[in-house]
Amino acid sequence: MSFDRSIKIAPSILSADFADFGREIQAIESQGADWVHVDVMDGHFVPNLTFGPPAVKAFRPHVTTFMDVHLMIAPVDPYIEAYADAGADMITAHIEAGPHIHRTLQAIKATGKQAGVSLNPGTPAEAVAPVLDLVDMVLVMTVNPGFGGQTFIQSGVDKTRTIRRMIGDRPIHIQIDGGVTPDTAPLVAAAGADVLVAGSAVFKGGSVAAPGRYGENIRAIRAAAEGAAAKAA
Ligand code: DX5
Ligand code: ZN
Questions:
Q1: Mean pLDDT, rounded, of the chain
Q2: Which of 10, 16, 58, 175 could anchor a disulfide with 139, C-beta 3.0 to 4.6 Å?
Q3: Tens of pLDDT along 112-133?
Q4: pLDDT by residue (tens digit) across 60-80?
């Protein structure tokens, strides 16, 4: 599949109805989601608990686009195989989750899945330089991980610009995660991001019974980002 740096919207199901994931995934995909972002939290690396491999396996048959699994767990290595077997298309690990991110990314690639590396707001862009040739994506956190609905951290914009420069013309996505709205999306799209995760900004005001709002929210984020990306080109 050729590399595509156009704007992609990846709703985070952390903001979905926890009693109805199958229909929520179908709803966001029918309303224009490009990827489905699955936030895995272990109550240790981040102060929240979410989805184990069995849950991700249950989501899999409902995902027809691309299942983007964000591991906010430490350690990572013991669980890579299980999330790959559960059906993840992309597995992203945090550089802060342990001392051996290079080996972790090698282990993700060895499963045949795409590999992402994620940076918390306190981690400098330069930290990913040694592993850029191993990854398919760099995830720039624009909130401190653990919850949806938080406020966007502005320093992520410059960090995105730095990472975009470091990547050059390598086929590596830049994903932004946390506080993405139609107001913040243009900032990071202009800085070079192409995959925008949004939880609260996609799910707000909608439901599986009234999914049209999901589509409106996705279109608003996409339009704002595409406009800014076109201007910055
Ligand atoms: C936070 C997660 C994010 C979060 C995004 O730790 O990684 O994906 O769900 O939610 P919003 O878009 O509401 O900030
Ligand atoms: Zn996430």
A1: 98
A2: 175
A3: 999 999 999 999 999 999 999 9
A4: 999 999 999 999 999 999 999
As to burial, measured by CB atoms within 10 angstroms (0-12 exposed, 13-18 middle, 19+ buried), residue 127 is middle
CATH number at 53 reads: 3.20.20.70
The verdict on residue 188 lying in a domain is yes
Answer whether 84's CB lies under 8 Å from 130's CB: no
Q: Residue 142: CB within 6 Å of ligand 1?
A: no
Tell whether 1 is covered by a domain: no
Task: Report the nearest atom of ligand 1 relative to the CA of 200.
Answer: 13
Is residue 160 situated within a structural domain? yes
pLDDT at 1 > cutoff 70: no
- Provide the number of structural domains found in the chain: 1
* Domain extent at residue 205: 8-232
Q: Which residue has the CA at smallest separation from atom 10 of ligand 1?
A: 148
User: Could you tell me if the CB of 185 is within 6 A of ligand 1?
Assistant: no
**Distance (Å, whole) CA 104 – CA 128:** 13
Asked whether residue 2 is assigned to any structural domain, the reply reads: no
Q: Please list, in sequence order, all residues whose beta carbon lies within 8 angstroms of the beta carbon of residue 194, skipping any fewer than 6 positions away.
A: 5, 6, 7, 8, 173, 174, 175
DSSP bridge pairs for 10: 197
